[in-house]
Specification:
315 residues; alpha/beta; 7-stranded mixed sheet; 11 helices; globular
């Protein structure tokens, strides 16, 4: 079994190739061509942490992947990153472990950011006035990096809970060429931006329906486990198009689950990202529509990005 470090992985991953792999994975998932066992989840409330174990196999693939991902959100105060993890890639022919990707959670963050890039390409309004980011952590940074590939907008307004996090994010975004505004009020994000990405582990709604402008696209990635929530359920219900990465998963947790459980939406209002990519679902039809992508993270993303890494390493 080969072992690859985070440094090797980050230096070699072809983002464009990874996008194509992820798109193929989403389509295969929505066409029922992937085995995705139930997610194993652990909660550590006394440590403000959680852990998930995800695995997937796409029919015809040479490999399958098991991924472990952790989020311990008080870690920055200890001088540690909030997220960590690893991926194990095994042969679908012999069952032998082929590679251990010691990515320290980076691949999970990247595949999530690339999914956000795909969603924005498909659903964002034609003219983005400003990008809004909720959160200042690793995922908030990765999402902004990837949005640069799908929109020319270089204005960003970012919300965070701490001045230190906002200052660091402002330095980061400025170095990417963005005009940056920071705020402690999420209503200001909704007022200024028509492409908003929510990246926090919040357990209380941050964005309210009445704040959001017509024509806004929202990508929500923070609510990736039971109990997490960043959007007012009324905002989910107000969306003209609701795209999910997994109907089954988003019905259990994520932003959509809260709206479903409140009786504000029906499951028939949901379409999967794979169906949208395959042309079997409707996306944005005009720039007055509110669109929402609820991305809880599907294990096919891990299988696809890990196979993309191995292909690059073998080249």
């Amino acid at each position: 079994m080969k072992v690859f470090s985070k440094a090797q992985i980050t230096a070699s991953l072809d983002r464009g190739a990874a996008v194509r792999c992820l798109e193929q994975g989403f389509i295969a998932y929505s066409e029922g061509k992937a085995q995705v066992p139930p997610v194993q989840g652990f909660a550590f409330p006394e440590a403000n942490g959680d852990c998930c174990v995800k695995s997937a196999y796409i029919a015809g693939s040479a490999t399958f992947t098991v991924k472990l991902s952790t989020g311990f959100y008080d870690n920055p105060s200890r001088g540690l990153p909030s997220n960590d993890g690893l991926m194990l890639v095994l042969s679908a022919l012999t069952g032998q472990p082929l590679a251990l990707l010691q990515d320290e959670g980076w691949l999970t963050g990247m595949r999530t950011a690339l999914a956000g890039r795909i969603a924005a390409r498909l659903l964002a309004p034609a003219q983005v006035s400003a990008i809004g980011i909720l959160g200042t952590g690793m995922q908030a940074r990765m999402q902004l990096e990837q949005l640069g590939a799908v929109t020319d907008c270089r204005r960003v307004i970012v919300w965070g809970r701490q001045d230190s996090g906002l200052a660091a994010y402002s330095t980061f975004a400025s170095a990417l060429g963005y005009e940056v505004r920071t705020t402690r009020d999420p209503a200001e994000v909704a007022a200024a931006a028509n492409l908003i990405v929510c990246t926090t582990p919040s357990r209380q709604p941050l964005l309210r329906s009445e704040w959001v402008r017509p024509g806004t696209h929202i990508t929500a990635v923070g609510a990736d486990a039971p109990g997490k929530q960043e959007l007012d359920p009324a905002l989910v219900a107000r969306a003209d198009r609701i795209i999910v990465d997994s109907m089954a998963q988003c019905s259990q947790y994520g932003e959509v689950a809260h709206a479903l459980n409140s009786g504000l939406i029906d499951a028939n209002q949901l379409s999967e990202l794979g169906a949208l990519l395959a042309g079997r679902a409707k996306g944005r039809e005009h720039d007055d529509q509110i669109t929402l992508a609820d991305l809880t993270g599907v294990a096919v993303q891990d299988a696809q990005i890990s196979s993309c890494v191995l292909a690059t390493m073998a080249a």
